[in-house]
Amino acid sequence: MKTDAYRVKEGKKVKLAEWKTDEDGGLEQHDAKVLTKELQEQLAEWQERLYAERKQALLIVLQARDAGGKDGVVKHVVGSFNPNGLTIAPFKVPTEEELAHDFLWRIHAQVPGKGMIGVFNRSHYEDVLVTRVYDMIDDKTAKARLRHIRHFEELLADSGTRILKFYLHISRDEQKRRLQDRLDEPGKHWKFNPGDLKDREHWTQFTAAYQDALGTSTADAPWYVIPADHKWYRDLLISQILLDTLKDMDPKYPKTSFDPAEIRIE
Amino acid sequence: MKTDAYRVKEGKKVKLAEWKTDEDGGLEQHDAKVLTKELQEQLAEWQERLYAERKQALLIVLQARDAGGKDGVVKHVVGSFNPNGLTIAPFKVPTEEELAHDFLWRIHAQVPGKGMIGVFNRSHYEDVLVTRVYDMIDDKTAKARLRHIRHFEELLADSGTRILKFYLHISRDEQKRRLQDRLDEPGKHWKFNPGDLKDREHWTQFTAAYQDALGTSTADAPWYVIPADHKWYRDLLISQILLDTLKDMDPKYPKTSFDPAEIRIE
């Protein structure tokens, strides 16, 4: 499956209205799930190589509007990885101590070490999204932050960390369906946050802020705009991109420092 | 399935020689795997309740000799949990900064928050195991540490954290088979650590140290001696104990602060 069409090209100004939310690749749900399962079996093998090699890391950044599917990707895609080689960092509203530092301080502390796959459920990008929409920072600060983000990601890339950034792209109607679903099903009430409705009122401002954030797409830290109205297509697409990326990183089992034939176990 | 026989009773002095390593519950591997899969589907539901409730936490401590199966349990049992509600803390040889603090300092920083399941792959128990075998601490220090550990676990229990401690019990022969396997299969060379052979020479001293550590079994933080020669029986048994424990903790979906029928999504 080709995924290049979903990658934001470096230097290209994104208009989200031009990106489809309901793409399904011409697939049925059942077939997509079978394909995803197959990809994830291959992913497990490549993850082991990455872990054994201990020379590179993979950082997965998940961003989306409320109900966009970040938790779903963690459960259904990231959940197929071996937890031994995985770190998950969910970023919430910053604490007082975190706010007393630069905005990348708490982020930097959570990047994956060599051999690991790290997942950011929300990320440093919140600092140029929600903060902008609610006028907590001005445009000049936002612009400076976007520059700091590029430099920070460059530092990680130079140290052997490949970065994949996914924007899970849902339509306004699909968000409504998902939020309504949380109200209608008692077992999902705990997922409903009345504050999400306030963010929904600022749909257009969030779109503008996301479009600027997507401008930080580079070869080492590309953004992908993932059509996410169909959860199963979203999962398939991300699994494919992860697999292509790991293959491209090409981690290798390390050479041993000993001769296995020489060792006797008493 | 009854698991009580594998729990170390409070105040009981353990003699590991009396605990079987090759128990299989009278099951065949295939049937055990089917049963484990069924248990794990139930575990996923209970994990969601724990996560939604956000009032209690579950801490799983894994200890074993080299090749005892800690990583296997993380992959095959813990791997069935939703990563959104999971933290994994692998404890390695302490760093200089960690050694500059009391031995529980780095441990405390990694305990799971409310709603989470936390896994310690090795733990504070290393500080009364490897350190003792290699005479890095004397018996008086070991005794004091065991007391500090009991107090520390009591603190966690009082704050709503249930603790399950698993000692994965393998025979000396089984360890030999597994280490030899790592030498024989090129794809497993990276798992072989020549230092494991030194620990193997100290088998009896490790047994003695483990027996003392198992003395910290309490109602809130019990130790289980898991027969672990058969990986599939080990996984089944641990899955069953996790499920029984989560059911006993009985987390509940929280009541909403809003009336779902009153909310209109524009």
TrEMBL record, chains A, B:
One Gene Ontology term of the molecular function aspect: polyphosphate kinase activity
SUPFAM superfamilies given in the database record: P-loop containing nucleoside triphosphate hydrolases
Coiled coil segments of this chain: 29-56
Keywords: Coiled coil, Kinase, Transferase
Keyword Coiled coil in record: yes
Record-annotated Polyphosphate kinase-2-related domain positions: 29-252
Protein name per Swiss-Prot or TrEMBL: PPK2 family polyphosphate:nucleotide phosphotransferase
Listed GO biological process terms: polyphosphate metabolic process
Pfam families registered for this protein in UniProt: PPK2 (PF03976)
